[in-house]
């Protein structure tokens, strides 16, 4: 039976198991929105295309499925560039569908025309301009295969308006041939096993690839059987439970002292699904100078790109970890067991001596807000965050004990991510509490999506750590630009966030003192069926520590102000 290109599009999406699409209609995509009315797929009407992309990312982060977003031609497509670049950096599987002007108008600078496939080619794994309606279904299936295969990432399908409206002959779709898995040789596995058994100070350096490949159980088995401490990057929080004694937390520029120094003093880094990015390594010349490297990654281009590896294991993290676990004997086979035990004792001492600290001086501290949110929810919420100081505090202080309960913008560092990602997470897991920890600067970039949360029935809890400024920029200006502050002041009451929330149909609350925090959180949790925005007026002078200054060695980590047992201490770690 004949069908339009738009109907073929949605049939293919349904065959791929798509349940939710995030988007906004417009001229060139209108035939698709007409076909949507007859589809089983839920559409979430966002208020901005960038937010549609971030919502699809949030959905993918917590569900493990491919996120889908739709937009019209021209500015609709160009507004998707940021979430596509974000998904590319963080290996998030995403399919973006854009309308295009009719074929006869292409290249004539028609209304709302933009060469979106050319624009997005550098920030997608692949994209397609569909000129034949009969090919549309097959291309959709190819797009999903590319998005989730190998190193996951975003793809884009651009469809002219007349292709969507034209009659198409439905064809049986051919499942794209899967690429053979990379060869994992027994010799390479045995070389890795030998390095692990011979190491005295090993560290598992875990990146987001462990979460993407659902390899957390295998990671846990390796760490526990071999008694290897674990650092989890910003994108891997929850891949290994923070409550476990082997967990060291987040490494890097704002990481835990024990995590940063463990990597620096390690003699073996087992990097799994991590890419040795600059925010983790600091100056590469001074990074982990005594460590040999086993690097596990699905992308062969990552192995040796930033740090040479003694053993490179190309493949899906789960498959490689299974092979390592099968080949590794128990801890009793470790060559120097006493050195291993002493290493763990040293790390435990560092954890106890240098925890995350802040000065309790009567002002409302952002760190305290996060601690109380975690306590009130028991850590059982799905968490999203924007980018900046509040992002780092969230990753530092929230104790993650399960994967896919954290959605964040890592590599691209996209402000405005938290709220739309929270809506995507809520659409994926409607039965769970979703909390968005945001800064006042980030929140104002996508706050219009409060309307989406109300209209689409996606209630979330938004906690704004409102310091009245672009906090991380202000901190850097104070620390590295001689205190010369330029264009960072936002004003803590501009706008009034509680009243803004009420205007959008949400519940708006405010806390200005530490004594008010628990009650406003309790009130928010008593309202699970409405989005609640809490304006926490936090100390504007608070800085995020520890910090490894940009371009410096991790050995130059600055702990900052910390409350020690004997009072206030200013500490700089050096060795």
Q: What's the CATH H-level superfamily name of the largest domain?
A: Thiamin diphosphate (ThDP)-binding fold, Pyr/PP domains
Largest sheet: 6 strands, parallel
Intertermini distance: 73 Å
Overall, the morphology is globular
Helix % is: 25-40%
CATH architecture of the largest domain: 3-Layer(aba) Sandwich
Number of strands: 22
Beta fraction of the residues?
A: 15-25%
Number of domains: 3
**Coarse structural class:** alpha/beta
Low-confidence stretches: 562-575
Main sheet: which strands, in order across? 3-2-4-5-7-6
| Global Rg | 24 Å
CATH class of the largest domain: Alpha Beta
CATH topology descriptor of the largest domain = Rossmann fold
Q: Overview of this structure, please?
A:
The protein is α/β, with parallel strands linked by helices. The longest helix has 17 residues, at 337-353. It folds into three domains: 3-168, Rossmann fold (3-Layer(aba) Sandwich), CATH 3.40.50; 186-352, TPP-binding domain (Rossmann fold), CATH 3.40.50; 366-537, 3-Layer(aba) Sandwich (Rossmann fold), CATH 3.40.50.970. Mean pLDDT is 94; it is low at 562-575. 37% of the residues lie in helices and 18% in strands.
């Amino acid at each position: 039976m004949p069908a339009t290109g738009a109907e073929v599009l949605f049939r293919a999406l349904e065959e791929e198991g798509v349940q939710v699409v995030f988007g906004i209609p417009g001229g060139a995509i209108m035939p698709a929105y007409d076909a949507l009315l007859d589809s089983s797929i839920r559409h979430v009407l966002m208020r901005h295309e960038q937010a549609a992309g971030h919502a699809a990312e949030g959905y993918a982060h917590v569900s493990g499925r491919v996120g889908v977003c739709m937009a019209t031609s021209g500015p609709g497509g160009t507004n998707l560039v940021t979430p596509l670049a974000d998904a590319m950096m963080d290996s998030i599987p995403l399919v973006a569908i854009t309308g295009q002007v009719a074929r006869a108008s292409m290249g004539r600078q028609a209304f709302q025309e933009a060469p979106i496939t050319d624009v997005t080619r550098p920030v997608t794994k692949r994209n397609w301009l569909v000129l034949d309606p009969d090919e549309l279904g097959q291309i959709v299936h190819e797009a999903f295969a590319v998005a989730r295969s190998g190193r996951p990432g975003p793809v884009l399908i651009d469809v002219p308006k007349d292709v969507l409206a034209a009659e198409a002959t439905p064809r049986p779709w051919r499942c794209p041939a899967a690429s053979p898995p990379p060869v994992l040789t027994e010799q390479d596995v045995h070389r890795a096993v030998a390095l692990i058994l011979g190491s005295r100070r090993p560290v598992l350096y875990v990146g987001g690839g462990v979460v993407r490949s659902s390899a957390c159980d295998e990671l846990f088995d390796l760490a526990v059987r071999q008694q290897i401490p674990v650092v989890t990057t910003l994108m891997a929080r929850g891949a290994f439970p923070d409550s476990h004694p082997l967990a060291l937390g987040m490494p890097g520029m704002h990481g835990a002292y024990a995590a940063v120094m463990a990597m620096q003093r390690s003699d073996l880094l087992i990097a799994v699904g991590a890419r040795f990015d600059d925010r983790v390594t600091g100056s590469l010349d001074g990074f982990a100078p005594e460590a040999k490297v086993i690097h596990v990654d699905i992308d062969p281009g990552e192995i040796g790109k930033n740090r040479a590896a003694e053993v490179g294991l190309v493949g899906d993290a789960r498959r490689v970890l299974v092979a390592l676990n099968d080949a590794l004997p128990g801890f009793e086979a470790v060559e120097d067991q006493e050195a291993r035990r002493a290493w763990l004792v040293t790390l435990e001492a560092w954890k106890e001596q240098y925890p995350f600290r802040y000065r309790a001086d009567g002002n409302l501290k952002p760190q305290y807000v996060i601690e109380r949110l975690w306590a009130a929810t028991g850590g059982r919420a799905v968490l999203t965050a924007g980018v900046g100081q509040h992002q780092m505090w969230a990753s530092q202080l929230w104790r993650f004990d399960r994967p896919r309960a954290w959605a964040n913008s890592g590599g691209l560092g996209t402000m405005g991510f938290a709220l739309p990602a929270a809506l995507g997470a809520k659409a994926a897991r409607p039965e769970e509490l979703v909390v968005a920890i945001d800064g006042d600067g980030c929140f104002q970039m996508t706050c219009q999506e409060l309307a989406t949360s109300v209209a689409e029935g996606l209630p979330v809890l938004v906690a704004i750590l409102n310091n009245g400024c672009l906090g991380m920029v202000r901190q850097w200006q104070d620390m590295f630009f001689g205190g010369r502050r330029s264009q960072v002041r936002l004003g803590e009451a501009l706008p009034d966030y509680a009243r803004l929330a009420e205007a959008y149909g949400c519940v708006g609350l405010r806390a200005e003192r530490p004594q008010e925090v628990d009650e406003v959180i309790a009130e928010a949790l008593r309202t699970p069926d409405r989005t609640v925005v809490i304006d926490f007026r936090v100390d504007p002078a608070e800085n995020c520590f520890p910090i490894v200054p940009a371009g410096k060695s991790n050995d130059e980590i600055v702990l900052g102000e910390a409350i020690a047992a004997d009072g206030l201490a200013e500490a700089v770690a050096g060795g």
